[in-house]
Amino acid sequence: MLNNSGVAGQNIAADDEVKELVGVSTTTDEDEQSMLLLSRWKWWFLVVINVAILLMGQSGAVLLGRFYFDQGGKSIWMATLVQSVAFPILFFPLFFFPHSENLSVTTDITINSSTHTVIMVYIFLGTLLAGDNLMYTMGLLYLPVSTYSLICASQLAFNAIFSFFINAQKLTLLVLNTVVFLTISASLLAVHSDSSENEMSNVTKSKHMVGIWCTIGASAGYALLLCLMQVSFERVLKRETFSVVLDMQIWTSFVASCVCIVGMFASGEGQGLKDEMKSFKAGREVYILTLVGTAFAWQICSVGVVGLIYLVSSFFSNVMSMLSLPLVPVAAVLLYHEHIDGVKIVAMLLSIFGFSSYIYQNYLDDTKSKAPEIHHTATAETSIS
Hints:
- This protein is mainly α.
- It is built from 17 helices and no strands.
- It has one domain (about 75-95, about 115-195, about 205-365).
- About 80% of the residues lie in helices and about 0% in strands.
């Protein structure tokens, strides 16, 4: 009996070795499931962290931007500059969380791609980013925060349209539903003008309309920018990895900052910054802290955007950035005592409904894309590698 059991043990050991050599998995289903569950929890944890970073950065930046104008800030170019000037923060993820695979990919891209083409892409996208940030600033200058945030939701509708023509993304019924409801929401706010708020903020009706159209134009511009970035990843940079996405954010922000600095001094606003600091209602220290805090908030938002692009997709990152839609108007009511009338409530509900349709379409697409992968994984576990 001992000899037979010993032989059987040797045969089992030999079978395991053969399985390992030919590539058949020797782990149990329980072990594989627990490993998949653990990795899935890590992925969800990182996604939640990046969503929180994005929402806090974006909401804080918008509220601080409104505070800057309410306290006497007048420089449009300065308010635009702070949206991109803190880009050196984005170097820290590369230093502290390096990915050897991604870094090698970046090296290959640098060698294989035309340096001139890459530089021209960065300059073009950075200039477009500066113009887009300028329109956002004009919108925030002439509009209440609640109206500004609700109109910004039209970015999803523009993103769907540009993705259809530029990125060949399908327009489903749910996406069309999003376009329709967000268009109606923005139209309601464009037609409706709250005269009491305009009088309190010393904004004429013509400036109010300028703010509305600048915000709509900025939303369209940012949606176009995202689509062009995706084209750049696919056709010029050939990859959309962590380090490559960070490079895109860093160098486009650098170009945008240079454009804003040139615009500031060319317009003469640079010479009036000292007087603006002195006349700031909350004081010089608060003036500096407001600008620094706004710059950091926008770049913290960028870190969340980059993280979601790397973990999920640029599409998902864009959708999550719209989650601040119900947060910012509520914060504006609490902090700035803004008035939300029936038209704004209807516009908010329409925007949330359109946003929900966009989220659900993203969920359906994600489910369809994962179904073949799950089937392939299940088949591969029972076959030779």
